[in-house]
Each structure stands twice: as structure tokens, then as C-alpha cells.
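Key result, reporting period 2: structure in, sequence out.
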């Protein structure tokens, strides 16, 4: 039989020899050994296997962050099914779309959401709905408790699908990025080497896990990094800047979005002494302001390592870890990672000279297999010679440092989450009295960027901006809600009739300064 190329098999092989050592400790004082991880993932995998699911089944999960939620992810890989993480902030209309599109065989939700989520799931043909609470309650663990704690890892090829990550489309319709076992494992192996993860024999790294686990950053980059290295994880269920700083005395690696660094900088307890034990601070998922980069260095003596990736590709570039590879430059995302091809092309499809701006295209083992059930969209996003068009706009300087200067299609990244204006505009435009809307991103000191909506009313109608925002709160995830909504007589347009969002951005850029 050929080698098992399952991501879980590789992660399991990296567990330390002493399975009774601590693998994960939580902010509530719970400790999980490596043996606990082995047994619990086996029991959950056996539960999934007992359901008689068809080959290639999807397991959709919308639960709060917990170690058990992480174990469910690992168990889904172990059993050979596809994991589909869903942001805990998603509301009814969004869940209806994802469940309808992915047709998962299993849905796992929080106990408090079971009533409405189960109705959506059963209507879409899902046969199994379980609950999982952040306090280890729910039907999933109750059922798994009766299953064997011995399980043979499902045999997978590198090209088999491991996860589907929904990434909202600029047209408003979300796309499911299909990631394989090979995509995820190759990226984790590259980052392990490039970021200098220290094995237990070398003194060992300890990760502070402060990110959500429905997102590439927390689920793949942070989690796979620690597990593939056999490293202990300090698990923060919710981010608390004071606690994160206090835990630095026991840890060596921290990964965060810029917002987390801004919040820790606001704490007097953040000092060089507090961060003395740390080896590496990594930032991603949104642009890190040079001001934050400089402030962090001044306060802690550490230089943040900024990197760049996407749901479709996992990590693509990184500032250097080792001094001999170059300096970490604020405002850049470093160099393409080993094995990653990156080029910048103009509208004519030709490479642009160093320092000039163009569309970023990439290739490499981490690039996804395509969009779920969207063959035409998949084909459209790849060039004739097989490179993926990221939709990001950037440049590469003479030394090879990559800088992201913007995003095509007006994507807003708020607190590390992608907000696609077309999706939000679709909801606003359906509200009573609204003729048209435009959503633009403006700078924000905490979130990096936030959305501001500009709305025109229908003739004779009266639209209240605060009411628009209040209505959206019941329909959409909180990170998608505009921070402000302005009602105007008309939107600025060019000669072709297209709304000039650049003028709206300029008009409102100082709102939160």
C-alpha cells in the first residue's frame, strides 16, 4: 500500500515520545496531555465513522473556540472527511447559504443555536446535527464518550481534500476554497523550517494560541505549526491582552492579527522584561501599520515578523526569521517562501519591473485545488500557465521584498477578517426605502480598516442611517457591519456611470483618525 499522506498522520507522527507530557493548557486551568489528544481524536473519529457517511463527506462546524473544537477538526482529518469551519459570527442567511452550497453530512453547532441551525441543516438534507459548547457540553461529546479510543488513521493521498474554507466573493457570493492534505502539510513543513521552530530536544517552543480557529491563521498556521513541532500550546479561549502578556513568561511564540498587537500596546504591563522569554512575534491577516511595527520594537525589543497568505493558498511570503536572510521590514510582507512562485503582472499580462505595481500571481504546493462546485470561477482565477491570480495588488523591490499596496475589487480587511462590499451592499439595497448603497473601507486605529456605508433613498422615502446599521446587525456577522452609515442625495459617478468609491474613501478617511 502506498504511504499515507494524510495531514493527521504527519501531525500524529510528530507527537513527542512521552505522550503523558502536557500538549495544551487552557486559560481556565485545564491541561490536556498528548495521550488525551490521541484518545479524544480517536473517539471522535470513531463516532464519525459509525455514522456510515459517504466518501468525501463534509463536516460543517460553527462553534465557539475550545480545545474540543480543535479535537473535532483533527478527528475529521483522522477519519478522512472534509472539515468546513464557519465563523461564529455568521447569522441565519449566511449559514443557509453555506449549508445549502456545501451539503455537509454532519453539522456541529453551539447548544444555544441548535434550534435554528438544525432546521436549516435538515432542510438542506444533512442527516446528523450535533452540539458542542465551549464548556465541553453538548451531544457530540456525549455520543463520542461511548466510542473506542483506538482508531486507524484513514488513508489519504496528498491530493485528497482536507478542508473547504469559504471566502466571500467580490460579487457577493461566497466561494469554497478546496484545500488538500498536501496543500496544508507542505505549507506547515515550510513554515516549521523557515520560522525556526525549536523541537523539544532543542529546548522547545511554546505557542500562545490567541486566534480564532475558523480562520487560516489560527486553524492552520498556528495550530499546525505547534502540532507538527510537538510543541506545548497555551490556549486562550478569548483574547485578553493582560493575560496574553502575562503568559509570555512561559511561552516563546505568539501569532496575532494587528488588532491584537494594538491592544497589547495599550497595556502598561507590556515591557521588555515581560517579553524577555519570547523568541518570535508573527503578524498577519491584515496590514500591520508601520507605526505599530515601530512601537512594538521600542516597547519590547522584538521585531514583529509580518507575513502574507490567503484562504486559497495558505502562507505565501514571510519576512525573514534569521538575520543572515535579511532584515524584517515594516510595511512589507517579506520574500516568497521556499517553493512559492510569485510574480507581479500588469494589465497586459506581462511582468512589471522591480518597484512597479501590478497584480500578484502565485504558484506552489500550497495553492488550492479550486473553488467548490465552481469550475468556471476556478478556471477564471488561474492563468493559462497555471498561476493563481490573488486579486491583491503589490510590488517587489530590487531586493525581493514584497509589499501589498491594495486589493482589487475594494476588499476591506477589518480586524483580520475579509469584508466584501458587494455582499453588504446587497443586504442594504433590499432595505425599505433604499435606492442604492456603496460600502468603502476607511482607516481605523484599532481594526486597521472599517466599513462606512453611503446610501441614497428612493424618491419620497426617508432612510435613517442608524436604523440601517441596526437592521444589518440581525442579518450579518458583527465584523461586516459598517461603523457608520450616511444618507446622501446621490453617489459620485464617472462618465460610465460607475460609482467612484475612491472619492467616498477620500471624503470619509478621517472619520476615525
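The corresponding designed sequence is given below.
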Amino acid at each position: 500500500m502506498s504511504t499515507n499522506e494524510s495531514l493527521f498522520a504527519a501531525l500524529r507522527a510528530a507527537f513527542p515520545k512521552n505522550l503523558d507530557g502536557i500538549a495544551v493548557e487552557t486559560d481556565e486551568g485545564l491541561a490536556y496531555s498528548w495521550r488525551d489528544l490521541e484518545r479524544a481524536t480517536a473517539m471522535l473519529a470513531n463516532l464519525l465513522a459509525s455514522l456510515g457517511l459517504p466518501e468525501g463527506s463534509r463536516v460543517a462546524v460553527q462553534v465557539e473556540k475550545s480545545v474540543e473544537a480543535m479535537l473535532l477538526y483533527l478527528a475529521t482529518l483522522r477519519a478522512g472527511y472534509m472539515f468546513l469551519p464557519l465563523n461564529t459570527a455568521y447569522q441565519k442567511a449566511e449559514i443557509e447559504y453555506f449549508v445549502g452550497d456545501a451539503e455537509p453530512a454532519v453539522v456541529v453547532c453551539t447548544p444555544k443555536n441548535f434550534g435554528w441551525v438544525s432546521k436549516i441543516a435538515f432542510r438542506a438534507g444533512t442527516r446528523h446535527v450535533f452540539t458542542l459548547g465551549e464548556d465541553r457540553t453538548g451531544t457530540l461529546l456525549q455520543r463520542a464518550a461511548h466510542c473506542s479510543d483506538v482508531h486507524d488513521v484513514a488513508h489519504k493521498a496528498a491530493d485528497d481534500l482536507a478542508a473547504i474554507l469559504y471566502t466571500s466573493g467580490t460579487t457577493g457570493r461566497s466561494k469554497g476554497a478546496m484545500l488538500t492534505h498536501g496543500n496544508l502539510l507542505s505549507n506547515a513543513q515550510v513554515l516549521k523550517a523557515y520560522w525556526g521552530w525549536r523541537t523539544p530536544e532543542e529546548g522547545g517552543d511554546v505557542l500562545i494560541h490567541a486566534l480564532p480557529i475558523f480562520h487560516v491563521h489560527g486553524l492552520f498556521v498556528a495550530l499546525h505549526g505547534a502540532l507538527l513541532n510537538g510543541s506545548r500550546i497555551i490556549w486562550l479561549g478569548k483574547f485578553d491582552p493582560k493575560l496574553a502578556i502575562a503568559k509570555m513568561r512561559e511561552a516563546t511564540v505568539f501569532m496575532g492579527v494587528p488588532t491584537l498587537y494594538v491592544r497589547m500596546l495599550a497595556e502598561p504591563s507590556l515591557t521588555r522584561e515581560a517579553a524577555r522569554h519570547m523568541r518570535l512575534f508573527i503578524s498577519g491577516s491584515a496590514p500591520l501599520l508601520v507605526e505599530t511595527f515601530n512601537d512594538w520594537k521600542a516597547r519590547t525589543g522584538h521585531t514583529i515578523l509580518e507575513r502574507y497568505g490567503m484562504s486559497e493558498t495558505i502562507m505565501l511570503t514571510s519576512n525573514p526569521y534569521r538575520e543572515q536572510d535579511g532584515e524584517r521590514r515594516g510595511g512589507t510582507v517579506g520574500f516568497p517562501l521556499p517553493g512559492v512562485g510569485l510574480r507581479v503582472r500588469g494589465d497586459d499580462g506581462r511582468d512589471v519591473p522591480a518597484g512597479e505595481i501590478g497584480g500578484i500571481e502565485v504558484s506552489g504546493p500550497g495553492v488550492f485545488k479550486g473553488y467548490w462546485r465552481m469550475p468556471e470561477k476556478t478556471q477564471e482565477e488561474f492563468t493559462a500557465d497555471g498561476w493563481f491570480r490573488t486579486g491583491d495588488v503589490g510590488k517587489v523591490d530590487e531586493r525581493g521584498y514584497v509589499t501589498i499596496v491594495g486589493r482589487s475589487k475594494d476588499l476591506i480587511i477589518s480586524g483580520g477578517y475579509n469584508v466584501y462590499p458587494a455582499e453588504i451592499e446587497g443586504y442594504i439595497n433590499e432595505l425599505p426605502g433604499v435606492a442604492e448603497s456603496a460600502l468603502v473601507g476607511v482607516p481605523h486605529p484599532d481594526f486597521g480598516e472599517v466599513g462606512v456605508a453611503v446610501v441614497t433613498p428612493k424618491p419620497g422615502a426617508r432612510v435613517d442611517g442608524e436604523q440601517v446599521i441596526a437592521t444589518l446587525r440581525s442579518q450579518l456577522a458583527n465584523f461586516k457591519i459598517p461603523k457608520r452609515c450616511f444618507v446622501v442625495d446621490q453617489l459620485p459617478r464617472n462618465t460610465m456611470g460607475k460609482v467612484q468609491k475612491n472619492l467616498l474613501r477620500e471624503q470619509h478617511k478621517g472619520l476615525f483618525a
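Residues 121 and 238 are 28 Å apart (CA to CA). The longest strand covers residues 434-444. This case is discussed further under Risks and Mitigation.
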